[in-house]
Amino acid sequence: FCSADTDSQEFVTGLSDTEEARARDTAAYMARRDLFTSGLEMERSEVISRKEAMRESAERISLNKREHFKRMNEDSLMHAPEFVIKPRSHTVWEKQCVRLHCTVSGWPDPRVIWYKNNVAIDPLASPGKFKLESRYNFYRPTWWQWYSSVLPICGSSDLPLVGPVSEYGITFQIHIVDTFGVSFGREGETMSLGSTVIIYPALHRYQPEIQWYRDDVLLSPSKWTHTHWSGDRATLTLTHLNKEDEGLYTLRVATKSGYETYSAYVFVKDADAEVEGAPGAPLDVYCLDANKDYIIVAWKQPAVEGGNSILGYFVDRCEVGTSHWIQCNDTPVKFARFPVTGLVEGRSYTFRVRAVNKSGISRPSRVSEPVAAMDPADRARTSAPWTGQIIVTEEEPAEGVVPGKPSELQVTEATKNYVVLSWKPPGEKGLEGVMYYVEKCVSDTDNWQRVNTEIPVKSPRFALFDLAEGKSYRFRVRCCNSAGVGEPSEPTEAITVGDKLDIPSAPGKVVPTRNTDTSVVVSWEASTDAKDLVGYYIEASIVGSDVWEPCNNKPVKGTRFICHGLITGEQYMFRVRAVNAAGLSQFSPISEPVEVKAAIASPAPPYGITILECVRDAMVLSWKQPTFIGGADITGYFVDYREVVDGVPGKWHEANVKAVSERAYRVSELRENRKYQFQVRAANMAGVGIPSRPSDTFLCEEWTIAVPGPPHDLQVSEVRSDSLLLLWKPPVYQGRDPVNGFYVDIKEGEAPEEAWRGVNTKATEKTYLKVKNLKEGETYVLRVRAQNKAGVGKTSDVTEPVLALTKPGTKEIHVEVDDDGVISLNFECSDITPDSKFVWSKNYEEITDTKNLFKSPGEEDIGVYSCLVTHTDGASSSYTLSEEELKRLLEVSHEHKYPIIPLKSDLAVELQEKGKVRFWLQAEKMSANGKVDYVFNDNVLSQGEKYKMNFDKNTGVIEMLMESLTPADEGTYTFQLNDGKATNQSSLVLIGDVFKQLQKESEFQRKEWFRKQGPHFIEGLSWEVTPDCCVILKCKVGNMKKETSALWHKDGHQIKADEHLGFTEGVLKLEIAQISRKDAGVYEVVLKDERGKDTSTLNLTDQVFKLKIIVKIIFFLLLFLANSSTPLKITSTDEGIRLYTFVSFYNDLLQVTWHYKDSAISFSDRIKSGVVGEQLWLQITEPTEKDMGKYAIEFNDGKGGLRRTVELSGQGDFVFLNIDRARVAGGLPDVVTIQEGKALNLTCNISGNPVPEVTWLKNDREITSDEHCILKFESGKFASFTITGVNTSDSGKYSILVKNKFGTESGDFTVSVFIPEEAGGKRK
Asked: What is the pLDDT of residue 711?
């Protein structure tokens, strides 16, 4: 049995001929039910023909007699091939796939070849279009399949039959898995395409034939493409992507038993332009024509023109073996062909092209293949055998014969830039080396001019340049050799110089159709009267964006293209433009919008048919959902059955006329103890799919076992890296007693049967179970068993393998409580499609009314809530609502229903400047719509003269201001806040003593504010006693002006007037030198000017006697302290000398003054004074001869004072001090200039007792002695500094520091090193 098949979705392979008849038979009565009819279904509705009956008979005969044939001698059984069932004609829709099949017989098994229109079909000629498959074995018929991906199959098919083909006596099966998909790259990137190849049976070191094709052209390894075969994986690497690499890539794996192919498209985008707005690079640069004088370079225009239209192209050349590119044309050429001249004969060149527009120049194209500047005649006479020798063959010339006329002169190509002529040499053979002169003349004249006057051309082709555009010319050719110049050829017709190739017209109507979730099939009407058409460019735009992007960057020649890489769910429009060498056409009309969405198809067949229950006249079936649902929800299933008698299946009968939605169905009206087979078909809005494979044969007899039947409809959801959820339906057959629990078993996908283990040790009554503690990345399968009182029943079917892995982007259900207090469950899915639905369940039973969910939450809402998203790859999640969680959510809901505006601070009151009263509070957060009501004693207050309200919504501060308080303002103040549904209020009670105290304080501050607007007292009148035993009356005043006067009064009589005071704020004083009783009285100071006045009073009537006693005590105290002082003495310290005296005790009232030579000493950092205990001292740091002289300390006792003196001279302690402190006596220069490499030695004298410590510094950093720099200090007097060989790094500032307990001194010098050979003796 042979078939050729182009079905786009092949769900059943390897079916027998009777099964094929069964598929058409069932399709027939499905069509009669008028459900989902189409032209294909009508075609399937044909009744079984005589040929089909013959096929069934032939198959049975073949199966029954095959063993008999094996035992007999092959020679006696051999007979020629013959058709049992011939191929029949088919009528199919355009673009639909078709299957052709036939049944043949013959011994040995024949070999089949398919023909179309008497031409053998070669799968290699059109990879991916035809698929021929042969499966020979002893018991099964042979299949041939023919796939046509685009065009309908027309014409006749003939099948000559020949002998079988095998390799090593083995028929190999090829499977291409782990394939590459549609790929996207960018120019300059590297891309790898690869697929895993499985060949069965696997032979060690067997090497299949691996071939890669691009657009049906076989690829060979090059610097652009690398291929690799690892033994089980074929890889193609595109090392440097260019737009030339865009196209349909096909992997072909072949053995002598057959071949398999896989194809996918690769798209290459332009690299980012070097200049913004520049066009994309041209592509497919190649040599159109070449001889020793010129090479015509051709290319294809890019799809991306940039910001402006392309003005033209620059052609660059590079001689092979060099890397120097030379631009061939000074001005851009618009025509996509250009003759390059100025070449060296015999040398090879490569070419590249750049496009230019107003914005700039594009990147260069991919380099062309090398082309030699050589005449075709020379190229034809030159060969290069494998030995590497170059052999040139020529006929012996006939000397002295002038050649005849060239023939068939014609213009092969004409543009406004050049004209190409071609002709045939004269017919005579054996002529001496013939060359040619080309001549031209303007039409309507007979003035012929020789074009190549200097050197004749050798090849019978020639390009003419520098012709005047728009003029008409005629051309002719003369032959010449050493014997002379022959007669001219017949002239050509008049040729007008100009582009003979027009830009193609715009393509016609564009029709997009849905294809997949990311692609659209675009078809269009071809350009009319287009000459030398290169192809088409397609552009797409999202509706409303007004942005057009290219779908292909390499022209396609057909009128149908699949645009990939689109956004699912978006609406796209498309337009097309044609291209030839003359340029790009106008755009086609824009297509109607189309949504990017997978096209709808009929579903694949269900599978896994099992029996759930069996009685005397009925069986309950179950099955699994199809792996491919066709892009639309399955609307139902149809079940068929047939009786099997003695192993021979009968005719199919429909079990249900109306589709069933569940994946279980009871088939009734069966006969007891008869055997039956079943098949199931799924239906969606696109139609009814093909039936499943026939089930196993089941015996219809009543089950009487005590244990329950198998659970069914196992489903896996909520798959994570460590857990999954398994759901199932209870068994239909309960057994003797009702089912009371379930057990779940699990094992790794590839593990043996012994690896099954239980998930739950105690039976669960629920029909779902969360399986935890899975290993990430491991594959698992599961099954379920039911139990009743009699025991555990039969296991269910095993689930499909499940990978324990959390998919990227997986989200979980989360709970939200909105502002209205409504509790809601939310689930987000990133892989949603337009047809997806969110199916919510409670305890894994679908919730039909989700609107009233959690409307009045209570204990009845406790449970497990789950959500499943349809039309996704199993997106699902669950959430367990426990009693504790429900309680928490209800509390949050109440807070949201009846919200309270939080407060940072409650209502409070404070007094401000001028005695203003401020009531305020601060809210945590309020919106712009927040409002506040101000209430006093249940009366709402409003803005006015008495009340000033402010509400800062940014900070939440709310305040109310009152100028003053009156008795009527006593009561309760309340701020009532409202923000949407949220409310709050805060109150403050001001009554009784609290209110009176606040009112009194407010009134006082109000008066104070008015008082301070003019001159006023900051501090009132007070008194103090000075060290001179005087009494001072003083007060601090502020806000003074020059016009302000201060009047002093005693007992109402003015005693002093201060006018024109020169300060704004200061102290007024009144001195009483020797206070007595007559000074007793009431003293008053009055400040006044035009702004007002202020008064301060002090009563000294009862305080004069006390003041007199205080003054006397102070006087005697100071006198005692002055007289108790000891004579001045001098002592030495680490810092210098100190002069000091002692008193019995020290008091702050004692004032002392230090004098030097009868003048008061001005203190500084070097000369300081102070008190330590009872010692009064004067410190002189690092004294010199200038500090010698008479020093005195004067005590102020309130009258004349007491003075102690001492003479500081060059004798005694001072002399001792000057001798003993550390000093640098001399010997060091200020600057030392020395030549590099010389030795430097410096010595200085050091003095001091005790012997000082010596430290050397360079650039203020301490240095130590080493071999390069030697430091010495000898005899406590001589310090030396030596550098053995100076270099430029020794330049810098040097210091010597000497120190002992009596003082410190330093000496500095600078070292400058110069290099003598430097110009001018440059210093370092």
From this structure: 94
Are 1222 and 1304 in contact by the 8 Å Cβ rule? The answer is: yes
The CA–CA distances, whole Å, from 268 to 116, 712, 977, 1073 equal 36, 49, 64, 108
Residue 802 structure tokens: 């499940």
Residue 1168, token pair as written in the block:
């300081």
Structure tokens at 204: 């060690």
Separation CA 1001–CA 1265 (nearest Å): 80
Look at residue 124 in the predicted model and tell me its pLDDT: 67
Task: Check whether 1241 has a pLDDT greater than 70.
Answer: yes
β partners of residue 538: 576
| Rounded mean pLDDT, 1307-1324 | 70
pLDDT at 1008 over 70: yes
| Cis status, amide bond into 606, omega within 30 of 0 | no
Asked whether 1188 and 1214 are in contact (CB, 8 A), the reply is yes
Distance CA 29, CA 46 (A): 10
- In this predicted model, what pLDDT tens digit does every residue of 688-736 receive, in sequence order? 889 999 999 999 999 989 999 999 999 999 999 999 999 999 999 999 8
**Given a cut of 60, is residue 438 above it in pLDDT?**
yes
Provide the sign of the torsion angle of the four alpha carbons 993, 994, 995, 997, taken in this order: positive
Residue with tokens 């003269």: 945
pLDDT tens digits, one per residue of 60-83: 555 554 444 444 444 444 667 777
Q: Which of 312, 301, 317 is nearest to 351 (CA)?
A: 317
Question: What was the pLDDT predicted at 628?
Answer: 85
Interatomic CA distance for residues 232 and 229, integer angstroms = 7
* Structure tokens that stand for 762 in this block: 């105690």
Is the peptide bond preceding residue 589 cis, with omega within 30 degrees of 0? no
Confidence band (pLDDT; 50, 70, 90) for 384? very low
Cα 108 to Cα 125: distance, rounded to the nearest angstrom: 29
Instruction: Report the candidate in 769, 749, 751, 752 with the shortest Cα–Cα distance to residue 760.
Output: 769
- Average pLDDT on 815-829 reads 86
- Is the four-CA dihedral 723, 727, 733, 736 of positive or negative sign? positive
For residue 733, give both structure tokens.
């057959």
pLDDT for 1108: 62
**What are the CA-CA distances from residue 527 to residues 371, 536, 553, 580, 585 (Å)?**
33, 9, 19, 11, 9
CB 1200 within 8 A of CB 1119: no
The two tokens of residue 113 are: 């070849």
What's the rounded Cα separation, in Å, for the pair 694 and 285?
58
With beta carbons less than 8 A apart as the criterion, state whether 364 and 353 touch: yes
Give the C-alpha distances (Å, rounded to integers) separating 862 from 703, 880, 1063, 1085. Answer: 40, 8, 83, 87
CA–CA separation, 193 vs 262, rounded Å? Answer: 11
DSSP string, 568-620: TT-EEEEEEEEEETTEE-PPPPPPPPEE--PPP-PPPP-EEEEEEEE-SS-EE
Name which of 637, 691, 697 is nearest 23 in CA terms. Answer: 691
Q: Using H for helix, E for strand and C for coil, what is the string for 300-355?
A: ECCCCCCCCCCCEEEEEEEECCCCCCEECCCCCECCCEEEECCCCCCCEEEEEEEE
Residues linked to residue 60 through DSSP beta bridges, in sequence order: none
Distances (CA, A) of 1152 to 1030, 1119, 1123, 1141, 1173: 18, 12, 13, 12, 15
H helices of 33-99, in order, are: 39-44, 50-71, 74-77
When pLDDT is cut at 50, 70 and 90, the band that residue 93 belongs to is: low
Tell me: pLDDT of 56 over 70.
no
- The sign one gets for the Cα dihedral 963, 969, 971, 974 is negative
Spatial CB neighbours of 101, under 8 Å, sequence gap ≥ 6: 1, 2, 3, 4, 5, 20, 87, 143, 144
Q: For residue 1026, how far is the Cα from the chain centroid? A: 83
DSSP H/E element including 1000: helix 992-1011
